[in-house]
Amino acid sequence: MEKEIVIDIKNLVTEFADGSCVHKGLDLTVYRNEILGIVGGSGTGKTTLIREILLLQKANAGTIEVFGYNIMTAGSAVIQALRQRWGMMFQSGALFSGLTVLENVCFPLQQYTKLSKSNIEELAYFKLSLAQFPSQSANKLPAELSGGMIKRAAVARALAMDPELLFLDEPTAGLDPETASGLDELVVDLKETLGLTIVMVTHDLDTLWTTTDRVAFLGEQKVLATKPMSALIHDKHPIIHTYFSNERAKRAEPHDEVH
Amino acid sequence: MENNEFKSSESANMVCEQQTIFCEGNWITQTITQLANAYREFTLPSNTDITIDTNHVQQFDTAGLWLLAKITDYAKSLGCKVTISGLQDEQHEIVNKVLQDKLEPAPTPTVYPFLERMGKNALASWQLVKAFIAFLGEITDSLLNWTRNIHKIRWRSILSNIDSAGLQASGIVALLSFLIGLVLAYQVGIQLQSYGASIYVVDLLGISLLREFSPLLTAIIVAGRSGSAFAAQIGTMKLNEEVDALKTFGISPTEVLVLPKILGLTVALPLLTILAICFSLFGGIVMSKMMLGISPVDFLKRFGDVIQLKTLLLGEIKTPVFALLIAAIGCFQGFLVTNSAASVGERTTISVVHSIFMIIVTDALFSIVYSALGI
């Protein structure tokens, strides 16, 4: 069966204002209902790539197709509709600091639906519980939350409009191992129960091993390889080899486990 | 399911036939509004077995499944035994999750009665006054510390503040002062002309501009321009935990952030005031020439005769005090920023309002003191 393509990037070129080149002829394909990890050294343009797909930043050349629409040329009506079909969790949460967690999750629902206030609130509580955010803390302000709670609240807000496509930027960065693996489980859960397509930037090797279906490795201004984790670590490309051959990477590799 | 098309707009709907509820349409966030508001008005059979048939639903998302769970819950509350048909396993799981989630609603913040609120506000204001006095004490302490350790003084930072709050403000201060001199001379001139006492425009302009208007207006412009910038800068640093980072290094934020601003402004504001005096007098000279026919030479000659150095000094002596107030209030409000972007805006506004208020009050106090001393 042909797998449905959600994101199709061809020949992408990105240059910063100072002339430095981040992407040069980058190609990437994301299929429906998969979890794609994006890895690569610092400064290889992982976050930039996501920001370009989300139209927060413009690429210099190439095409990005999302759900079959070329977003580089699409009109504002198409883009507005697309924006309701994807959700993004920013690295530091980017929760609106003046609103409580509950209000943060309600916000997009209030903007885009005509549901009554009590329905919106109930729905928001449900999204929070999907993200395993403790409901007793829903009236707290983002500044009163711990790192793990902020990430969960950010996931709940990203899920508010029931996106088909979810972007996560460093979902487990700065979390303790227990919270981090809780978040990993959550990501897999979301993919399986809601049928989401998930694209995540991460450095966390445990996350890569336990959640992703495929991993795209960025380097030399393009995608060097897109493979399942178990195949990627045996890739012979020198940059990939160096990346995964250090001690930390070896420790994270699962031993004698049946998958 | 046509996933590649945009979600169609056909609404979610349900039809009751005896013991079966047929669901149809799209059950997604955008299309469940009507049904979500109205499902309680449907007449459902009570105390029997019913089936909810979802085979004809085109699309579900979590919001749709949440609504399905609400309807199930409603039917159960009428004493029915409910079975749902036509759902996939994962969808069933979500419906069950909604039904099982007995959410503890978050505690809502207590709203105090009017009198209690007023009392709390008054107390909070009093605390702020005390905190500001403590802040002034901290500034003095840091200043004394600098006088003991000259090498600790951050000259570069002070100079950069003189540049940003003084030099870069000179354009706007000069322009506005020129216009004020122009307008003032015009208004005064009209009155004096009718008495044939045109030349007295020099006395009036000289005294009012040197003693009152130039120091006051310059201070107000600077409060709006630099005081707000101080509050916003320190506030953002506080949000970003940069202030805490300084403290962990054992470096006093007062010394690094506040003192250079206060000292810089204390140098810049008197100089700006002199600039303002020059340009407002220039405006006065231009208008006197145009309207009253007083030549610039006559104007300056008379100015030299009637205006004493004392007048300039009485005005200038106020400006370091204004500078201290503007910088101290701006920085103090910056440190009061707490954890939200909105609070940066709020504190910045308060800093401008408070400093302008304090400038005018202080100016009035100076007038009282001057008149008591007979100068």
Describe this structure in words.
The complex is a heterodimer of chains A (259) and B (375). With 259 residues, chain A is α/β, with parallel strands linked by helices. In chain A, 37% of the residues lie in helices and 24% in strands. Chain A has two domains: 5-85 and 163-252, P-loop containing nucleotide triphosphate hydrolases (Rossmann fold), CATH 3.40.50; 98-162, no CATH class. Chain A has helices spanning 46-53, 76-83, 101-112, 117-130, 147-158, 177-194, 205-211, 229-232, 238-244, 247-252, and strands at 5-15, 21-31, 35-40, 61-66, 69-70, 86-89, 165-169, 197-201, 214-219, 222-227. The longest helix of chain A is centred in the C-terminal third of the chain and has 18 residues, at 177-194. The two termini of chain A are 23 Å apart. The mean pLDDT of chain A is 86. Chain B folds into two domains: 13-100, Transcription Regulator spoIIAA (2-Layer Sandwich); 151-373, no CATH class. Chain B has helices spanning 33-38, 62-77, 89-100, 114-148, 155-165, 170-195, 201-239, 242-248, 253-292, 296-306, 309-316, 319-335, 341-373; strands spanning 13-17, 20-27, 49-60, 81-85. With 375 residues, chain B is an alpha/beta fold. The N and C termini of chain B lie far apart (89 Å). Chain B is elongated. The interface between A and B is large, with 42 and 35 residues.
Q: What would you report as the Rg of chain A, rounded to the nearest angstrom?
A: 19 Å
Beta percentage of chain B is 5-15%
Uncertain segments of chain B are 1-8
**What is the H-and-E element order of chain B?**
EEHEHEHHHHHHHHHHH
Largest sheet of chain A: 6 strands, mixed
Mind describing the biggest β-sheet of chain B?
Answer: 4 strands, mixed
CATH architecture of the largest domain in chain A: 3-Layer(aba) Sandwich
What integer value in Å does the Rg of chain B equal?
Answer: 35 Å
Low-confidence stretches of chain A: none
Tell me the count of domains of chain B.
Answer: 2
Q: How many beta-strand runs of chain A?
A: 10
Tell me the overall shape of chain B.
elongated
Q: What order do the strands of the largest sheet of chain B run in, or round the barrel if closed? A: 1-2-3-4
* Helix run count of chain B: 13
Estimate the global geometry of chain A from the Cα principal axes. globular
- Mean pLDDT of chain A equals 86
CATH class of the largest domain in chain A: Alpha Beta
How big a fraction of the residues of chain A is strand? Answer: 15-25%
Distance between the termini of chain A: 23 Å
Structural category of chain B is alpha/beta
Structural class of chain A, by secondary structure, is: alpha/beta
